[in-house]
Amino acid sequence: MTEKPINKTSLLFVCLGNICRSPAADAIMHKVVKDAGDEDLFYIDSAGTYGGHAGSLPDPRMRAHGARRGYVFDHLSRRIKTEDFERFDYIFAMDDANYDDLRRLAPTIEARDKVLRIADYFEHYQADCVFDPYYGGADGFENVLNLLEDACQVIYKKLKAGLLL
Ligand code: 4NP
Hints:
Layout (H helix, E strand, L loop, with lengths): L8 E7 L5 H15 L6 E7 L11 H9 L15 H4 L2 E4 L2 H10 L3 H4 L2 E3 L20 H23 L5
Parallel strand pairs: 1-2, 1-3, 3-4
């Protein structure tokens, strides 16, 4: 995407590597809006604060766990760009390190205020963040999916109700 999408609410999900959590959030949110028949109203993407995996598909473990729930995680990793802060209406950080990095990278105060903590949108779980599953086991990947399915539903409901920001 090179320009701000017209007449669409744009959502960017951000983690560190953009190969585990944020591509999962991206795909889950796509499914939430598709299932609601609202695909045309949203532009959804994901990115990482670290560019070391740029161009890669999501981690095979994340893809396998997602596939068991019917998701196809096929986003290619990319690093966040300065223009993303202009293009996107809402930028969701997966953990506090991502949140701090994003707020530091934001080029303007308005851009900084677009950065939100995804943990503020959990309804059925109590957690401070979507924990990084990269160095852990299968439970971590299931936990990512549980938290993101919860948060994406809440974010969608709040957006539809005009209650986000
Ligand atoms: P993600 O997970 O931020 O959810 O994509 C990670 C991916 C890669 C690394 C760390 C976390 N890494 O250190 O390369």
